[in-house]
Every structure is written in structure tokens, then in C-alpha cells.
Amino acid sequence: MKKIAVIVAAGQGTRMGKELPKQFLLLHGKPLLYYTLKTFLDAYKDLQVVLVLPVDYIELGKEILDAYFSSKPVKIVSGGTTRFMSVKNGLSIIEEEAIIFVHDGVRCLVSNELIHRCYETALSEGSAIPVISVEESLRKITEDGNEIIDRNTIKIVQTPQTFHSKILLPAYRIDDKEHFTDEASVVEAFGLKLTLIEGEKQNIKITRPVDLQFAELLVNN
Q1: At CA 33, angle to CA 117 and CA 5, rounded to 5?
Q2: pLDDT digits (tens, 9 = 90+) for 33-48
Q3: Helix (H, G, I), strand (E, B) or coil at 36
Q4: Looking at residue 163, what is its pLDDT?
Q5: What pLDDT band is residue 220 in, cutting at 50, 70 and 90?
Q6: In the chain, where do the E strands start and end?
């Protein structure tokens, strides 16, 4: 089955407190985005990448591709005003039947093993959503104050969220909604069930400076 990864790196990363969007910040002398792309391209030799970037940074993205991945099958598309629109833009150039990974460009610590498990599960079940358990105690704010939540019933959702194209492409023909925070919520709204798989604790989304420091300790040079 054809394999396509839509790497979503269209955000501005304001919580990082830097002028440059976080996907372009350096880790050991290379852009953070480099590590994400390399992991996916190394995972499968026949995998193709659709890279979704902010319009103002497409040229910088091309420079990264020319420097590190000039011979690899990567296409760049511009992002939208929301994650939904950015993913939709990336999916718009996919026409053939495939297993599609949708991954946050700033989750640079994802492993080949997780990518492989997502692919195999989506191939057999139609979808694969990596999740991890909550270790902290949780409380819900109510009108009367607050109440405890059973953390065993809660999961933290990660990427790559992976789907058969016959599921994901039709799902993204619906209109954007405020509660669409990821691909799983879109597919669920389309009326389809999701298959959850075990994610990875180190597969964090680089959002704040402390996350970048953590990545510097773990990412391969």
C-alpha cells in the first residue's frame, strides 16, 4: 500500500517566545523539522511526504529540503488559518489510495517503531491513533466547584494519526468546526470509529523552551 506522510508545520509557535517559528529552530545545528522529516523518510523507503508550511516560510522550507533531502520525494504546500485547513491543504494533493500519516512537524522525537505500528494498524483497521495514559491526578471544574476524574478513563492523544485514504479524504470534505483539534475529531464527526494504539512518552510536541531543552537531550545528532 502506498504511504504518504502529511507533516503539518504551518504554525507560528508563539508560545516558544521566538520570532522564528519553532519548527525552524535549531537542534544540534539542524532545524527541528529536519529530524521529523528524516525519521519518516527513514521509516519506509517508499514513503512520500507532503510538507505543510506557513506561506511566509516556504522558501526557508525549500532551503532545508535542498540542504538535507534533495533526492527525497517531498512536496510543499501552504498552510491555512487553522490546523483543519492546513491538513486539508495537504490532503488536497493526494489522489491515489494510500495509508496517510498526519504528524505534527514539531514532534521530532517520534520513532520508526511507532510509525510502523501506526501503518500496520491503519492497514488492518482503517485508523490508528497513538495515545498515552495520564499519570497525574485530574480534577474537573464544575458549577459547584470541582470533582475528581478517573484518570484511567482519560488518554493523551499524539500523532502520527494514521488513516486509510478512503476514510480520511472524504472526512475532510466537511466544514471546519471549532472542536476539530486533530484528525481523529474530524473522522469521528464523519461518523466513524477510531482505533487507539499505545503511543510513546518521549513523542512530545515541542511547544515551550523546556520542551526544546528536553529534545536536545534525546534527539540523535
Answers
A1: 40
A2: 999 999 999 999 999 9
A3: helix
A4: 98
A5: low
A6: 3-8, 26-27, 30-31, 47-53, 74-78, 99-104, 127-133, 138-142, 145-149, 155-157, 161-164, 196-198
Please say if the pLDDT value at position 15 is more than 90: no
Amino acid identity for residue 157 in this structure:
V
Report whether 126 contacts 133 (CB < 8 A).
Answer: no
d(CA 189, CA 143): 28
Rounded to whole angstroms, the Cα distance separating 176 from 179 reads: 9
3-218 has which fold?
Spore Coat Polysaccharide Biosynthesis Protein SpsA; Chain A (3.90.550)
The mean predicted confidence, pLDDT, of the chain is: 94
Helix H or strand E segment including 83: helix 83-91
Show me where the domains of the chain are located.
Answer: 3-218
